[in-house]
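Encode chain A's predicted structure.
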Amino acid sequence: MMSVADRIIVPLDVPSTAQAIALMEQLPQVSFWKVGLELFVHSGGEILTLLKSRQKRVFLDLKFHDIPNTVAAACRSVAGWEVDLLTIHATVGKTGLKAAHTALQAQSPKTQLIAVTLLTSISARQLALELKVPLELPEYTLQMALLAQESGLSGVVCSPQEVATLRRVCGEDLLLVCPGVRPTWADAGDQKRTLTPVEAVTAGADYLVMGRPITATSDPGTAFERICEELTAIQS
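Encoded structure for chain A:
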């Protein structure tokens, strides 16, 4: 069974390698770090190599979205870093998802490809009025999750509010990674569909991605430990 601390993925949402190192040194107890577009565009493979040298797990959150040949080629390029999680948008479609999965598994079978169902900053109103999607938001995210599962992917990124339904319909084998998780004592920021860490794990989430509730505080280490304590209480 995973430890409580291992369930928490902390984003390195900073613009440089130096700032990433400084944040890592503030949080030596964190075992799983997320590298997103901002840091990767600046640092490239340097930050991934650094994290692996420190025996950290890596969630490379680049959210690939392109034609099948391009996403497959991108996955082959990523394979050499042997990251633990890699994201792709489910909206590339089944052909693109299968192409990416096949390419990645051929060269880096330990890397788990997970599909973004819908960005957690998008509300039901935006989905309907701006993106013109005729499905209700819960139905849409479920369809994206099923598409990813049918395409052979390891899991999906979803709002914690969709976790219970996805877990019930998709079963226990689909990995559910949840951003938009906010403790009761933290500000929601730009996240529209949130739950607390305890609520998300109880609903069936495997991993919780939490940045600002930890990294934007005056004492990140204490904030991280506080979240761990809350989660430990429901496992004991």
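The first helix runs from residue 17 to 26.
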